[in-house]
Design brief:
Family: Belongs to the cation transport ATPase (P-type) (TC 3.A.3) family. Type IV subfamily.
Helix content: 40-55%
Structural class: alpha+beta
Protein name: Phospholipid-transporting ATPase
EC number: 7.6.2.1
Oligomer: single chain
Catalytic activity: ATP + H2O + phospholipidSide 1 = ADP + phosphate + phospholipidSide 2
Low-confidence stretches: 1-42, 44-99, 213-218, 472-482
Radius of gyration: 36 Å
InterPro entries: ATPase_P-typ_cyto_dom_N, ATPase_P-typ_P_site, ATPase_P-typ_TM_dom_sf, HAD-like_sf, HAD_sf, P-type_ATPase_IV, P-type_ATPase_N, P_typ_ATPase
Distance between the termini: 67 Å
Shape: elongated
Strand order of the largest sheet: 15-34-33-32-16-28-31-30-29
Amino acid sequence: GCSGPEAERRAERTRHLRAGSGGSGPAPRRCRQTAAAGLGWAGLGWAGLGAAGSASPAPLRPTAAAMTDNIPLQPVRQKKRMDSKHRGGCCECLRCCGRREPRPRTVWLGHPEKREQRYPRNVINNQKYNFFTFLPGVLFNQFKYFFNLYFLLLACSQFVVEMRLGALYTYWVPLGFVLAVTVIREAAEEIRCYMRDKEVNSQIYSKLTARGGLSFSTARAFMLTFLDGETDWKLRLPVSCTQRLPTASDLLQIRSYVYAEEPNIDIHNFVGTFTREDSDPPVNESLSIENTLWASTVIASGTVVGVVLYTGRELRSVMNTSNPRSKIGLFDLEVNCLTKILFGALVVVSLVMVALQHFAGRWYLQIIRFLLLFSNIIPISLRVNLDMGKIVYSWVIRRDSKIPGTVVRSSTIPEQLGRISYLLTDKTGTLTQNEMVFKRLHLGTVAYGLDSMDEVQSHIFSIYTQQAQEPPAVKGLSVATKVRRTMSSRVHEAVKAIALCHNVTPVYESNGVTDQAEAERHYEDSCRVYQASSPDEVALVQWTESVGLTLVGRDQSSVQLRSPGGHILNFTILQIFPFTYESKRMGIIVRDESTGEITFYMKGADVVMAGIVQYNDWLEEECGNMAREGLRVLVVAKKSLTEEQYQDFEARYVQAKLSVHDRSLKVATVIESLEMEMELLCLTGVEDQLQTDVRPTLETLRNAGIKVWMLTGDKLETATCTAKNAHLVTRTQDIHIFRLVTNRGEAHLELNAFRRKHDCALVISGDSLEVCLKYYEYEFMELACQCPAVVCCRCAPTQKAQIVRLLQERTGKLTCAVGDGGNDVSMIQEADCGVGVEGKEGKQASLAADFSITQFKHLGRLLMVHGRNSYKRSAALSQFVIHRSLCISTMQAVFSSVFYFASVPLYQGFLIIGYSTIYTMFPVFSLVLDKDVKSEVAMLYPELYKDLLKGRPLSYKTFLIWVLISIYQGSIIMYGALLLFESEFVHIVAISFTSLILTELLMVALTIQTWHWLMIVAELLSLSCYIASLVFLHEFIDVYFIATLSFLWKVTVITLVSCLPLYVLKYLRRRFSPPSYSKLTS
């Protein structure tokens, strides 16, 4: 982030190695990385708790591309990543921001001069414009739409004398006002964005220098990230050969380097090696995802020293996030379409007028004059009224006490909320709380629920008391005692397996009475906190503690359990096989220190464990029963190993891990050699608690005609359980689980099998989805859109956005995406309407969204009440503004026809501006407060929302009705004024203009369905303004004439004839063909 040779060298040193200042205490603190991509650091060492780093902080700008809790990272789209200009980087011609194609890299510790390639600058830039492009960019975005471009050309034409019809201000003031509002709004958003970026890019970081010393302690760390959408702690391990160095500064003295794969979007895998050349023999150590830290991570405790591998646009988080797009609502596009129709009408009317003059003289100039004369057919006030209406809707949403904490971040699309056909939601943290509760232990012949856990506790207690009191076996035991001892040993083996097979680490914190060191030494229960890579893991370990077998200590090489009697059981960890999305299982090999026995424990999903455990007749049935209850099921098994078996396995395993090519395949093959004929111990059932009122909210959305799709990065089994538990899939519906397909043929067969099922929910994995979309995109989307519900599991962030995009393209319907994590940002930005939930995964999703809510249940009210009201109000407002303009244009057409098709304006100067502003603006705009039913009724009858999906409030039919009303009223007013005026032309202006104002005020009253006190004030205020202004309008209106009785009765008659028939028609329609909502309000 610095310029100049010296600054570049300093920055490069920072790139290669950095030490955070030491942190004392276990409080989580953000790993402020200059790195990473989902992957930023290769962890070289952890400083122990309480260690103080003496590395001096460098006064450098931050080169952090991380997402903080307050800053959404909104980088370039993946498919354009290498084509577009580097964001926040140098200009393309200088080529100083790194090469275009991502490549593997070799990073030397402490030797920046050996760098083989340049890397992107590590800054974030979320602004749409810069200082020079702001004004041109904003103006271009305004005038690229037909509506605004038309008014610009109209205003510019008034500089030509032959085309001028009135004062310049009558055209330029309204246009200038519209543009000023837009520019101010965009400037405010850009300034806010700039300040947020500056805050992140100005952070100070520490770097490791040769002067700084930092003692190492061999350890491991837990880090919290939100890139994968899960709010769990991830276990990370340091490079083992660096742990033997006395201080961190020695890292700069050894001759070593890290080889890392090219940047890619996979957040779950990493391939690299750490090589030390100055040792004898040279040390090669494989690096995997376990040795890396993602960007925007929180370290649970201690200090991390790492080497930076990826920066800037090469971050995994950047690659998995799409650029924010300026969303234009469907409603705005429909209004834009109507204005094009009005423009066509304007051209036709102008041509007809000139044709009736037989194209005499300079007829082409006459056409232009008529185009200007009838320009009111397209109302410039329409855009202003709609934009101000959106601001009111946003204010009403924020002030709603029923959905506290709701924030409107994009005030341009509130009407979208009223027309959603597909809702795409995340699972973890959105539908669920991500808080696990242990519910069931099943041993095949017996099951223990929450009400019988005391029996498990008694079994465990009896095992350890018997071991302590009865070393030799006692002869002559009764049959009942033997059976009980057999059951106790089965329960004990199951509980011990659950207590050992996990990646949970107990961490001790000071509680004010006992300090941290003492608590750790004595395994103080009140100071212990469990950290793990999954909330399921913590729930299992907490349960084993509740039944008597407590996890009290763990490091890289050992585990300590405490028995009910307080005895410490020591186990040495020989190998750990972490859970992966491909394997769907985790394993651990431990040696019991007291007996020397080596045991391989494994737990995983029933679909994979069924082929690993010994034959049994109850596993499949009981897994199905527990899954139907909405529980997350894990199968636990074990296998005893001899010393020879283990040594043979270890040799093959180490060799496979050092392989650079096909490493994961070779490692999996070696592990699978152990995974045969394992002894089935038990099943565990854990429930992921749902968010408050998720079920009734989903039911409301379904009744409103909205189809719900759940897109999650979680396991297939877990996603299916949650779908059932949340009633996303009803109990009467079948579920078709799309089997894993890898090629075109398999996809074809599976799609045919799915086609034969009806009213069936679909569950599909991300890998199968990718294959289907590659070969059978149209067929798959056609089938999926017919499903009542769809669950996509193991979805990458880019896949979520792809699904949203395909739904939009294939159905043409509006989509709404709901999520709470950084992995949901792409989906939220791609959807027509993005809703972020502020939760445990931070604020990334809520900051990137158009609307931010605090709980999923608020979504129902946001759509059913506010979305519905916003759409209906804007529809009424837009059509009324068009009616107002068509009325005066019809009067102008009648006036010109009567006076030999002359291109002479009927009203001039302030009359034409005042008509659409102070005389009618307030009553017309008060329509944004109108509502057809109370909010409670809208929530009670979500079927009312379904009516809006067809777009009936604003359609060609309703538009045509308003056009006919406008033509009728404009003609009646103008012909009436022409028939009833007596002597002077100025009387025509007085009679027709007054009748026009009164007609508009009465039409607003006719349109309103529920009166608000502000509506009454607006009507009276507008009428008062007109009456008061008559004193100043003597140039256009005869003040003495309007005080006569003749003026009053003529205006009254004309107004009644123009409005009364419409009142009668409205009454008859409500009487004989009432709308659906009127049946609920009566």
